[in-house]
Amino acid sequence: MNTENTGKKDERNLYLKNEDLDVAVSKYLGILSSKTTHRKSRMQSVTEAQGWVTAEPVFGKISSPYYNASAMDGICVDAMNMIGVDERNPKTLIKGRDFNFVDTGDVINDPYNAVVMIEDVMIQNDEQVSINGPVALWQHVRPIGEDIVAGELIIPAYHRVRPIDLGALLAGGITSIEVMEKPSVGIIPTGTELVEAGEHMSIGKIIDSNTHMFAGLVKEYGGLPNRYPPVRDDYELIKKAITTAVTENDVVLISAGSSAGTEDYTRRLIEELGEVVIHGVAIKPGKPVVLGIIEGKPVIGIPGYPVSAYFVFEGFVKPVILEYNHQANAEGMTIKAILSKRLMSTLKYLEFVRMKCGRVNNVFVATPLDRGAGVTMSLVNADGILKIPKNVEGYEAGAVVELTLMRSPEEIENTLVSIGSHDVLMDVLANIIHKNRGMVNLSSAHVGSLGGIMAIKKGECHFAPIHLLDEETGIYNLPYLKRYLKEQDVVLIKGVKRTQGFIIPKGNPKKIKGIGDLTRKDVSLVNRQRGSGTRVLLDYLLKKNGIDAKDILGYTREMNTHMMVASAVKSGSGDVGVGVLSAANMMGLDFIPIGDEEYDFAILRDNLKDPRVQIFINVLKSQEFKDDLIQLGGYGFENPGEIINP
Amino acid sequence: MNTENTGKKDERNLYLKNEDLDVAVSKYLGILSSKTTHRKSRMQSVTEAQGWVTAEPVFGKISSPYYNASAMDGICVDAMNMIGVDERNPKTLIKGRDFNFVDTGDVINDPYNAVVMIEDVMIQNDEQVSINGPVALWQHVRPIGEDIVAGELIIPAYHRVRPIDLGALLAGGITSIEVMEKPSVGIIPTGTELVEAGEHMSIGKIIDSNTHMFAGLVKEYGGLPNRYPPVRDDYELIKKAITTAVTENDVVLISAGSSAGTEDYTRRLIEELGEVVIHGVAIKPGKPVVLGIIEGKPVIGIPGYPVSAYFVFEGFVKPVILEYNHQANAEGMTIKAILSKRLMSTLKYLEFVRMKCGRVNNVFVATPLDRGAGVTMSLVNADGILKIPKNVEGYEAGAVVELTLMRSPEEIENTLVSIGSHDVLMDVLANIIHKNRGMVNLSSAHVGSLGGIMAIKKGECHFAPIHLLDEETGIYNLPYLKRYLKEQDVVLIKGVKRTQGFIIPKGNPKKIKGIGDLTRKDVSLVNRQRGSGTRVLLDYLLKKNGIDAKDILGYTREMNTHMMVASAVKSGSGDVGVGVLSAANMMGLDFIPIGDEEYDFAILRDNLKDPRVQIFINVLKSQEFKDDLIQLGGYGFENPGEIINP
């Protein structure tokens, strides 16, 4: 706990404003450009210039080609001697006197001034040929400077050098060019709770990962990252770090810890050492950004939550770095997609929502990922970003929205979209598919089995992993297809049997024996979310045993995956969780089985023809898949990949 | 001249086939994958892993957050103690016994299991607060593993690591990962005519620039370039170089000289040392590619013309490198554009045409650039590539075509399109605009003044530089607008006066005094293309002087720019050229003036409002523009940038 925090809320963020993103960026860049002194340039060898930005226009030094060159394989001749030659008046030529053989690229010199293609030459012997057509002056001769004329522009100033530019520059006789120095970006991690990656981890500590992400993004956008060691939450220490970083760099980033205290330091320190231009922008996540200037240099305070940090970097640091080298801030590729579910947003902020996207039934369908600012994996797994403008309260399901892509359209085209129940085996499937079957990817959203069935109904996914027990018949899955998807032609791809049960700490300290123990006052449950098959199973068992959910401590504590349930038990914040054996095994926990269930995949029959689905089915049937699951434990196999008609 | 060439065409390219590009690529990759042995991997520090491709899936080692953490600033409490609290039954809490202050990110430990936001807390003093609402178990607490659960997948195998992945990997406790070794690509320049960049240049020599472009492209696509010194056209020397390169690399590229001889060596050598899979693909440029395998490694012979070399690299080497690291061969961004002129192609090849593209009157208009395989600058200047399929004989003007972009759509959006006459000053304008006016670019196509007027008529450009003398009135430009553009509301932006004349070698060795000397048998002219204002001027003067063009040697030798004319004179392949003084000055040549003319810009009145055009006009009015032209010499100024109504 932060000892400096006295709980007096009046001291917090007094100056927090709510500027619009565009306004904030142009205001900040405007003030910066009025204060920033001349940018540095340097000479760079052309062969090492790729990715650098020219400081001056580059003009050719020599012409290319450097001489009149044959554009064909053939013979070179003097066109003036060939006047009057045609089919009726062929002419015989003597080698060395009237012609010479030339290859493409050979020099054409006095007395020769034209080339006849070898196909139009009748060869009599090595020394003598004849031609029977007219020859124009300079025909089939590449003139000097056809490509580049000495003195002409090759590439302009402020141009980012590409491999094809290297070729043209060298051909134009240029061996070094003046380029803009890359801006050095000082990155200061702050926060008493930070530890460096690889250092010993303990409760209350956070691994500093954001500043390494910043370093990567700085490189990507053409800067040189210069990361400093973490500084603890001490006003004077942070002040010293900022002063040093401003002296040593062109741009300075202060990465806040996730506590409000450090953000506050940033604002106060920039105010003391320079000027705060903006504190607080109407974006979500990322609101508490601090945009400052010290000694004419941009100094930016970035919030600690990783997703906020990413959007603040993209929104503010990226344009600053690009502007430094006069590069345009390109928007990136976008696609239009159909929103699979209603998505509400606040009117107060421009919100960045991470989205999964796939092409299902020939339309792109987009589904929001976790919106928490702390969930880095929502960025890693995102296919695109949906920007919901300020003053827009959201979009209805079915709306056409525009996504800024985080992956190539080809990758999205090649993605199998699974929406439904979570099981550890989905990771196993994703890996085998991605690794062995070319360029196909599997993307899973975990919304529970019933959510998966709804996704099939709405055409949002290629298939839905489900495990739903019909209480009346005791049959898994098929009755649900008949009940909820009777208007669709839907089948089941057979998956696996898996063992569900109670996940408990190693050694079972609370001596839990079965479902009856859930109502004990000293036992706290970790549950799964409504709509998940595991929740359906638990509720079925509670009903069968006459237990009222209200009597269970933690019944309302819902997790979205088996691994999160196991993780909560492992950490001691719950005494018992419901989940699969494989998750307990992976976490090194004990397990009380409550039954086996069928984990299958619902799919529209039409989609079985999709070659990506065929790949998926082949993986289900593969020995590799079985071997991997046997290693995890808790699975049984009866013809996985088989198609079952309801 | 290549001494090995005896002119016996039967020896050449006996095995040249005409495979389709797609067929050739998949056949080659297929055979390669059946022969290539297991690819290497290595451990890489996460902080240095950006851009590398994972060899194995990466699973989290520790959970993130690592502990139950407060998601809000506020107080932590035991929810079990708060049962029954509401507005009518507020509860007073004592610090240290019932609650503690917490910041976002702080640890929530026994006995606390919920957080109340600071906004919902009534602070009585530092030691005592009260609340008046219900508290749910674990509310506002980020559970352990909310982001990453130990054991769960972070990134799959064969995933190219991005900055956001670095953040997630480090947060998941990963400090090093297994990545694919980047393929080492050996690059062998061959050709007796090659010199290294920076070495002394002489007639008959070519600077080896292609292999440096290859090195740049190899880096861009994730390989490690390994360029060898140039090898002259000697069978045994090239054989030795290939053998060494195959031993030392994963992929080998043999860059041919532009002569047919070296290409032939490549095929024969690969055949001797391994196997030629394909020789000859139905693409233009790039047909004579050789795709071979030696010791299970891809060995590719690339033709010497730079543009052919580029498309062969993109078509064959890129997929080989990407395949090595299991990366998909993304197509790149495309846009639809209107073709500005008829474009014919051969039925026998898939042709790659370099195109300029701009948004004029709200539609994208695409115009082909020089189609010669030797014109590197057509690649440097290209905005996109139009692929004309085999068996398609071309497209009519006005057809909607798809371009694969070479620049970002933003860059194309921000480009001013000029089509018309050439003058050295267009380079000057392009530079000032690009450098001083933000992100706006000027793109010029040189089709002559009359071509420019046609481009205005068809809406292909923003403006057209023209200098057209009306023979009857002696007035420049305005009469042409009235004659050819009477249906459009078109105006003239005033440009500059410039001096035209005869460009002659330094010292005037042939004692040329004026137009009368053009008919001398010992004088060879370098002319400009039909439709150019300079050609119109020359023809006007010839007519006035009663000279028949047929009597002029070289009258049909047409160049597209002033600089190419000057370059031809400089090289001695012509005795006199027509062009502007500035071009003669830049080449250090002598000059006989024949008259001053008006070089202005025709533009639709509507386009004057375009902010990009406003920037152009401001540059015309600037002192910087004048200063640059004064330095070139041969220009006069009378209100440049003024708008003249016809």
Alpha-carbon distance between the two ends of chain A: 56 Å
Strand content of chain A: 25-35%
Pick out the low-confidence regions of chain A.
1-14
| Helix/strand/pairing category of chain A | alpha+beta
| Tally of alpha and pi helices of chain A | 16
Largest interface summary: A-B, 141 and 141 residues
Shape of chain A: flat
Explain the overall architecture:
The structure is a homodimer of 646-residue chains. Chain A is flat, with a radius of gyration of 34 Å. The longest helix of chain A is centred in the middle third of the chain and has 19 residues, at 306-324. Chain A is 26% helix and 27% strand. The model of chain A is unreliable at 1-14 (pLDDT under 50). Chain A folds into 5 domains: 11-37 and 182-324, MoaB/Mog-like domain (Molybdenum Cofactor Biosythetic Enzyme, Chain A); 41-64 and 147-180, Molybdopterin biosynthesis moea protein, domain 2 (Alpha-Beta Complex); 69-142, Molybdopterin biosynthesis moea protein, domain 3 (Molybdopterin biosynthesis moeA protein, domain 3), CATH 2.170.190.11; 332-406, Beta Barrel (Beta-clip); 450-644, Periplasmic binding protein-like II (D-Maltodextrin-Binding Protein, domain 2). By secondary structure, the first copy, chain A, is an alpha+beta fold. At the A-B interface, strand 6, strand 11, helix 2, strand 15 and helix 3 of A face strand 6, strand 11, helix 2, strand 15 and helix 3 of B.
Briefly, what is this?
Chains A, B: This is Molybdopterin molybdenumtransferase. Chains A, B: Its EC number is 2.10.1.1. The structure is a homodimer of 646-residue chains. With 646 residues, chain A is of the alpha+beta class.
